[in-house]
Amino acid sequence: MESTDTLLSNVTLALTGTDANGHAVSATTVTNASGQYSFNNLLSGNYVITETQPTGYGEGIDTLGSQGGSLGAQDVIKATLAAGQNGIGNNFGEVTKGCIDVLTFNDTNGTGTFQAGETGHAGMSVTLISLGSSGVFGSSTNTVVQTVTTGADGTYDFNNLAAGKYAVEVCSPTTSGLSFTTPSAVSGTAGYWGQNQNCWDGNTSNNPGSTDICYKATNPSTGSSSGTGLLIGDWNENGNSSGGEHTIYCSVSQAQAILASSDNGDARYGVAKEAITGWLNYLQTGTCDATTKADINTAVQWLCQHSSNQTTDWSGNGSLTLNADSHQVAYSSSDWHSTTGTYSGYGSGGFGCGGSSGSYTDGQTVADNLHNDNSENCNVQLVNVTAGPCATVNVGVQSVINSAACIEGTVFLDANGNGVLSAGEKGEGGVTVTLLEMSGSGHCDTTVATTTTDANGVYSFENLAAGQYQVTYSNPPSGYAFDQNNTGNGTAGYWYNHSSLWNGTGSGNICYSVTDPVSHSTGTGGILIGDFSHNGTGSGENVIYYSNAEIQSILGASTSTGTSDARYIVAKDVISEWMNTLQTGTCTSQQQTDISNAITWLQQHTPNENYSGSGDGNLTLSASSYACSTSSTAWSGSSYNSNCGKTIDGSLNNDITHTSVTQTLTVDAGQCTTNNVGVVQVTGPGCQSTNYWQSNTSIWDGVHSGNICYSVSDASAGGKPSLLIGDWNADGKTGSGESTICLSATEAQQILGCTSTDARVTVEKQLVTSWLNVLDGNSSSQTQSDINNAITWLKCNTGNGSGDAYADTSHQMSTTSTCFSTTVGTNPDAAHSGADYGQAIFNALNYYNTTGAGIAHDATGALSGDVVSLVGLQQYQSNFMHH
């Protein structure tokens, strides 16, 4: 007893025993104000002093007095008293008990911390667990003290607790629609076990209480039982696979590596992580429900079936040797998605998969089922109770509805090509947006929802659980592609606006050190296009070198048809394609062919050959006598390898442009993630005039090689090379929903050269020109509408309904005819429906063939091109506003 101790009054004590004369003795007393007590006038004898434990105090240390004897149970002193002896100092020590105040609250702001204004949540199950001598949650020394339910105000107080370590476990029914916002101190997830290795690494010295949930198991590869590891599936915990058990052994270091690793595209990692997590949860709690046990067994069997030399994959070679194992399972494979099959026993002597053959299910289901088993249903907080003020445990909850996340955004016409939604840029409707959720293995497999953007380009997915998702955007407007970079499909505009990815000045750049073929210096930045071996020198390969400055200049150069050197068009696209191969680390045979063709074509039309980039600067395009016009045969006629520049660039453009883009997004509880995606008009080789197509029939007559035309099998073609105008799916036939006009190549040539004043023929001439420009890679949704309108109008104004006005000489139409130039009726759209207004249709097609832009609003809402120069357009402007 110390001078600072508190002396307790009114504590009851009892004396029992037998004196020296054999008489029974029994007496009681209470302590005085000074905490003292005494039993007087006693004969020698054997006595027992028993204290009645005072309310509100815990057991302290009792002290045997001067008379001798021994300490009995708690609060009991056995005294042996001699004749004439006084027994002094028989003291009973008490300690003030501790307490825990628990609050479960509605976490309206999702911070996990109780704040002013937030209310309690009633009806939550709360279990108090004494951790016992180990001090470790989940060990055999844990005992349940009490299970209660929080009151109307969300509170419950645990009082009169002995000092020590406790766990407060708050659980929510799975049907409650609640999720915990306060982080749990003990969580049975892969992340938890990866961060708390000291609980299971077999090293008791680094774990409070000197306990560890792992035990020694036999390594089936070496036969050694000296080390600690995980023998997953060893349900009787004897350290061996026996009694038909299917097991996989994993050393502690290998388990740690698997929990911390990325999967490198191997789906087995996802299953292995969940199997290790489930097994550690079982070892920690000592219990496993039938569903989880079955899921762990299935995971073991699936891993056995999909691993070579199974008994050494984990124990002998580490981490399932996933990087090198020929049994890797891709997330796109049927073994992951849908296949079920059979497994056979592996190993010998009861180790390995063991047991007899059986069936397994697909890996995705295996991983997802285990992930659900391992997910948190309860929140555990660890508390150290001491005498004095109560410990406080606050656990926040939030309804799934209130904590729901969302993904929203806009698909927009990216007028400035910077990939960012800017002021004045308009949304694009009708684009398909598909949302996929990440599975338990961290890969997207399940489609959550699919929607289309509204008239303003807006889309949204509501009431989502927090986590990772993938969003796929597809079906852009005809003639447009996504300019947000879908890895490996960056356009020239994308690479121009993202120079930090390739300029070699920052970390994570896709470029590598190359040798300038003129100065022979290395590490100066730039790209060596055609260096497919990536050795930086292009040794033995046909290459072109561009410095960083030249790349930026070429990518940003104007390539408007008729105003610039056509070599810029090819250079811009071959640079973009090379960047894409560097980004993905792969180059298909088609890409390699297209890049090689472009290099050779540029060298043929640039002085100083493969030194053109570095020696003459920007290919000396602005001043070189080698400048290539888009009307030259080098561009549109026969050139390198019977391929003109236009054909080579068209193939490159097909590689680069993309009609879908997929992006991974992370959403937080209660938050909306905004993701905007831009579309840009696909740059085709450039629209050409009627005279151009009349003078260059070899490009489209269906006879010469490299033609832009395709085989037409429609009955109206009669087996001849033909144009099937309006065949938008390019299958050579007039399909369901299509309206077409079929012209043989000879008829088309005659129409292009015709000087007839028949108003219908003027429209037909523009129609043939437009269709050839479409076949040449210059299409848009506006153009498709105008061509369809022309087909309908011509069919309405030809005697046999064929639409071939040139052949229908008996129904010629004057340009002053009301069918061509006069408004009929009050509906402003009647002109563009095809029934009337041939002049309006002529104007639209002529504008497209002249500029390649079509009649369309640009990002600011104005009409593209020189509106004033359009003959008669002002009269019909209200009709075109619907494009």
Automatic annotation (TrEMBL):
- Residue ranges constituting the Ig-like domain according to the UniProt record: 586-649
For this UniProt record, give its keywords in alphabetical order, as a comma-separated list: Secreted, Signal
Q: Does the keyword Heme apply?
A: no
The protein's location, in the record's own words, is: Secreted
> A Pfam family matched by this chain, by name?
SdrD_B
**Main location as per UniProt:** secreted
What InterPro entries has UniProt attached to this entry? Ig-like_dom, Ig-like_fold, SDr/BOS_complex, Sdr_B
Q: Does the keyword RNA-binding apply?
A: no
- GO CC annotation: extracellular region
Query: Which PROSITE patterns does the record associate with it?
Result: IG_LIKE (PS50835)
Q: What is the recorded name of this protein? A: Ig-like domain-containing protein
Naturally occurring in which organism (per UniProt): Candidatus Methylumidiphilus alinenensis
